Amino acid sequence: MTTANRTFDVERPIGVAVLGMGNVGTEVVRILRDHADDLHSRVGAPVVLRGVAVRNLDKDRGLPADLVTTDAEALVAREDVDIVVEVIGGIDPPRALILAALNAGKSVVTANKALLADYTGELAEAAERSRADLYFEAAVAGAIPVVRPLMQSLAGDRVDRVIGIVNGTTNFILSAMDETGANYSEMLAEATRLGYAEADPTADVEGFDAAAKAAILASLAFHTRVTAADVYREGISKVTADDLAIASALGCTVKLLALCERVTDPEGKERISVRVYPALVQREHPLATVNGAFNAVVVEAANAGRLMFYGQGAGGAPTASAVMGDLVMASRNKFYGGRGPGESTYAKLPIAPMGDTPTRYLVNLHVADRPGVLSGVAAEFASRDVSISTVRQEGAGDGARLLVLTHLATDSALTETVAALSELDFVIAVNSVLRLEGTEE
Ligand code: NDP
Ligand code: HSE
Description:
Number of domains: 3
CATH topology of the largest domain: Dihydrodipicolinate Reductase, domain 2
CATH superfamily of the largest domain: Dihydrodipicolinate Reductase, domain 2
Distance between the termini: 58 Å
Bound molecules: NADPH dihydro-nicotinamide-adenine-dinucleotide phosphate, L-homoserine
């Protein structure tokens, strides 16, 4: 059996290099070694760990010393390495290492959403040239199979919408704040200790990680190359205990959502909207019950209807499960010949600006408690064609506040309204603005 650059026979093991041995890499190596016999049977040939690349040789890895190296480049280049698993994270050096592997005809399995969100095109083209596999199931939603369903199971359908909770760290923090009133910083430290957070957790709490995943999901769903820069992004660092208490009083919780959808512009042309932000979600919505480091992705397709994928979205072992699934697929392809699907970008749909996106706002205003305030606030909404759904006044005197929930309006009209409200003399402060998702009114 031949692949681009070598011939396999049943006697020849498939050689694997693992780049990175942190939260995920440690579990990948464990599974590779502990389940070698099963993997052999599932692939048809032995799958053998050739080496592990790390930064620090002084840490005890529980591996023979000759398997551990700091020279990732040399490991990738070894003749007996057929598949490279990249679980280092970040852009450099993974980008160069993956390109070197692909250019040499070696297949690559990666969990690196930050890299994929900006460089899938370059990596996919290299894979295409050398007829190698580039698999990345672990890059979105940890253990949950969602990349393969979008790329393969739904390849004959038309996906209209993907909405999900795709960051475990922020969901862990928001759930704890909601359920027990836990403290934001303590929960972030705990998420880091449990191996959920990125090396720099700013990527989690400011929504960069979820935006990278949204870019990957939108690319797959809409056959269009979407990068992180195309994704509108807000994180959870400004979400307060007060926001969660208000949400609760309204029968909602707060979730960091990734939303990818087909939308129609005023001329009737199709575009896509890709965005990440914390939003109010009604308690009866399926996503409201997704707690802790769990993730869920809801896919709406023309013929399949609504599908929901749910499971552990972060952590070493769950993520390693997804990596191992890809590794088995890549190994089988090496052994039997053939390759997995490449990138599909034929649709080339334009990205809709955030300002055009219809959304609903809950605006929390600290106001002076005097006659005329309510009508003054309402006038700002009305003058921008934003219809109000409900208004609730809480407190009195110095503690008076108005909670204004709108109907659907464009995000630009809502942004302008909030900016105008903040200029009014009777508006002491705009305490917070949160979007409401999952309702169409
Ligand atoms: P960690 O920070 O725990 O581990 C990174 C590993 O890479 C460490 O072993 C580190 O070495 C090694 N490393 C760093 N720089 C180099 C280098 N220049 N050369 C060789 N090795 C290097 O990361 P995670 O395991 O948490 O994440 C890995 C990847 O998986 C990231 O892309 C992440 O986004 C992704 N991912 C993570 C998930 C999770 O829940 N943690 C879930 C889904 C995806 P050393 O040990 O010596 O420091
Ligand atoms: N930091 C990521 C998260 C890891 O919390 O979801 C999984 O991609």
